Amino acid sequence: MTSVQPDPESAQIRELLDAGQEAAEAGRWVDAGLAWIEAAKLGSLEGANAVSRFAAPHVRPLADAGAPEAQALMAGILMDYYTEDALPMAVGYARASAAAGHAAGLRTLGFMLVRGLGVDEDRDEALALFRAAADKGDAYGAFNAAVIQSEGTRRADRDEYLRLLTQAADGGITEAAALLGDELAASGRNREALSWYVSAAENGHDGAVDVAADWYRDGIGTEADPVQAMRWLLVLTAHLNVDAVHRAHQVGARMTDEAILEAGRLANQPTEAQILVSALARARERE
User: Fold this and answer.
1) What is the C-alpha separation between 60 and 165, in angstroms, rounded?
2) Which 3 state secondary structure label does DSSP give 250?
3) Domain limits of the chain?
4) How far apart (Å, rounded) are the C-alpha atoms in residues 112 and 204?
5) What are phi and psi of 118, to 5 degrees?
């Protein structure tokens, strides 16, 4: 089953680019840079160009004047969009922002310490910085702290790991929601796990989509619900997942056409649903 659906990511990129342009026109260059960076993360070359060509020259004077939010942003721009020669300057901005207690500065300096970018690698110091960022409500700081917390002997503090993952997931970090689902499932807390898998699935995490489809099909963490199972299977079939196509046929064979079409509506995959309905009808005719 294949179909062409509007790309929500493209719409999101356009929205971010426009938000950056609006902020730039208002002279809010930090906001502009942040919006363009988010667009670049989604694959926008226009966003990446705007960051380096337009945002950086305006953000740097703000950073040099001591604005912690500009220092954090400038550190990230130098780290991600310039050559290795710019790393010492990036570290300087990150340290200044972190010293001011700015969450993004703490997190950025922590990232540099994890990767050894312009500094010697120091995961213990990085963990302390990520925790400090998390304490200020930074979701990415919480997620990064959770990742390091899961390593080696640090893994013994499971409660701390779950707390950090929960903060990150609550803050919208999709990977954190999927990992939290895994952790809760391993403890038999299936109902809670399913809610986090669904949260991650709604944000496009394929692994979580796969789990949600199977759990709704089999009644794990919830009552069996073929419509919800089909909803997530149709998302996977739209991604050309061959195994999901097979599973969708199995589940769909026990559903009414109306139920399949409702699943397609929930998944925003009406064409996929109609293709499945037609394929199942042809299969019944051959029997």
Assistant:
1) 33
2) helix
3) 225-287
4) 28
5) 80, 0
